Amino acid sequence: AGSKLREVFDKINNLLSGKPVQTEGQTVSVTQHPQGLEFVCYKLAEKFVRHGEGEVSFHHDSAFPIAVVLSGIWELHPRVGDIFLAHLHKKCPYSVPFYPARKEGTSMEEYQRMLGYEVHDSKVEEQDHFLKRMSGMIRLYAAIIQLRWPYGNKQGAHPHGLSYGWRWLAQMLNLEPLADVTAMLLLDFLEVCGNALMKQYGIQFWKTMFFIQKSYIPRIEAVTSSGQMGCLSRLKNFVQKCLRAEEMPLPKGILTPSFWRT
């Protein structure tokens, strides 16, 4: 509910503003310790990224309520946004976007960690689980760049707005694609903020979509084995459908004005 989200936002904002906040039966304030504020900014940013790789990866619609709170907090407390990006880029290098290359002397285990895989006791997580986590984080990022907290003063620009999404898309299309990962991330990104990018960039956006269909999808196909075609087929169908209809669908779960009255 919108009212619940406002409560959550106010509590986080009050905490970061140095006001006393009630939690689990006790009152806490960042002023209680010289590094209190730094610690809270760090842990809060880390928690937002965890929501991306956890909750959003399983419930795609949850990207929007989480993102709108973070967007508002970022506007009032830029430090949280900076640390959020640092956590996000470390956990999901594809959000830069960047495909780390394996350097000489780097162990396979270390390299897999650089690629974003979780490695415990030399055991690497399953590919499906890895893809799901990356997908959740990209969806959260794609939601953040298009949303603003509706109760802010909106005097300045969005602290990390759609221009960053446009740049992400352009940089992504300049990278050599990876099997599985590239198709999935492009589809996630376009599903979540394609509509917002279309409204903002118009003809330039459609040129990019046409480029994806004509030039980039064949490049993804060239590196994709027959067992990894699922994501690629979905991306192909999505792009084709949008170009045919000359319309980007609104993402599922987007927060409508009526949501804020709940």
Write structural notes for this entry.
The protein is mainly α. The chain has a single domain, classed as Serine Threonine Protein Phosphatase 5, Tetratricopeptide repeat. It is built from nine helices and four strands, in the order H-E-E-H-H-H-H-E-E-H-H-H-H. The strands form two sheets. Strands 1-2 form a two-stranded antiparallel ribbon. Strands 3-4 form a two-stranded antiparallel sheet. Helix 2 crosses helix 4. The termini are close together. 35% of the residues are buried. The model has no long low-confidence stretch (mean pLDDT 92).
Question: Which labels suit this protein?
Answer:
two-stranded antiparallel ribbon; mRNA transport; protein transport; nucleus; two-stranded antiparallel sheet; mRNA export factor GLE1; nuclear pore complex; 262 residues; mainly alpha
